[in-house]
Amino acid sequence: MTPTLNLTINGVPQQIALDDPRATLLDLLRERIGLTGTKKGCDRGQCGACTVLIDGRRMNACLALALSYDGAEITTVEGLATGETLHPVQAAFIAHDGFQCGYCTPGQIMSAVGLIAEGEAGLDPERIREGMSGNLCRCAAYAGITEAVLEATR
Ligand code: FES
């Protein structure tokens, strides 16, 4: 029997027939739901390009077995903006050139949103670099990324 998964994705409840019980949340989002903002880089938990929020916490979607998250709330980069208004973290990435090619950017932004939501007091550049260390940028736009996250904490 095909298991049915109940997920709330970017605020929209969805029932998804899970044809392949081995599917990762990353493949489900990209290939079944069509939310391709979440990127596949390494597909083995090493780059952070696939970062989403699951029940508000940062997670590499490539490491998340979709079947394990029945009932969860998933937020992807597509769920951040409100209409035409960007999320403050998205706006800060633009203001501080927190990207070059942009491939890692959705994961960087989701990780930053999750890091800020963790509510740690006194996020300074060093702590931001540490907190974002699971998100790699091959263009090495780290200075802009750190500035962007710093601004978003203010
Ligand atoms: Fe998931 Fe790289 S694609 S960590």
TrEMBL record:
InterPro entries: 2Fe-2S-bd, 2Fe-2S-bd_dom_sf, 2Fe-2S_ferredoxin-like_sf, 2Fe-2S_ferredoxin-type, 2Fe2S_fd_BS, Aldehyde_Oxdr_Iron-Sulfur, Beta-grasp_dom_sf. Residues 3-80 form the 2Fe-2S ferredoxin-type domain. One of its GO terms (molecular function) is oxidoreductase activity, acting on the aldehyde or oxo group of donors. This is (2Fe-2S)-binding protein. It holds the Pfam family Fer2. The keyword Oxidoreductase applies. Gene3D superfamilies: 3.10.20.30, [2Fe-2S]-binding domain. Keywords: 2Fe-2S, Iron, Iron-sulfur, Metal-binding, Oxidoreductase. It comes from the Bacteria. The keyword tRNA processing does not apply.
